[in-house]
Amino acid sequence: MLNYWRLTALMSAVIIQFVPLAKSAIAQEREGCFLVNAAGEVINLNQLCSPQESIKLTGNDGKFIEDYKRLAKSYSPDATNNLLQSIQSSPGQKIAAAKRMCAEAKSGESLPEVKLRAIAQAASIENPTVKESFLAEADIITTLAGNHYCPELANK
């Protein structure tokens, strides 16, 4: 009986050596909901995924989101994809940023100054797609803030 247990232990040790271990995790290469098929093509699934943030998109907020999506499509495909994923996943953050810009503008800083500050911040971003997305978002939010939340300050 003891020989049986020794043989079982020896066989288990040998078999375990040949069992493949779990592969290490790979970071997601882009944001949002997507699938990479066998051909390596990225298929956008954002319409199937539920947004991470639930927000009532009516009135100025709804128009802001619609205009954001429309303006996002005027940039490079990669930047457009980043912008659309960003607005889909966190529309409330974009709305809050626009309202914050209006509050800053009402306290003395003009909307063009806000854009200049974003340009200065972007100077340290090395990745061209990330830099374009950052600048595009700053431009879109600043423009739309003036249109939707503080029109009296839009041309100042």
Sum this structure up briefly.
The protein is about 60% helix and about 5% strand. It contains six helices and two strands.
Helix-strand blueprint:
Blueprint (H helix, E strand, L loop, with lengths): L1 H17 L15 E3 L5 E3 L14 H14 L4 H13 L1 H16 L4 H12 L5 H21 L8
Antiparallel strand pairs: 1-2
User: Helix and strand succession?
Assistant: HEEHHHHH
Shape: globular
Number of helices: 6
- What is the distance, rounded to the nearest whole angstrom, between the alpha carbons of the first and last residues? 92 Å
Features:
156 residues; 2 strands; 6 helices
Structure description:
The protein is mainly alpha-helical. The protein has a domain at 57-153. The protein is built from six helices and two strands. It has a two-stranded antiparallel ribbon. The protein is globular, with a radius of gyration of 25 Å.
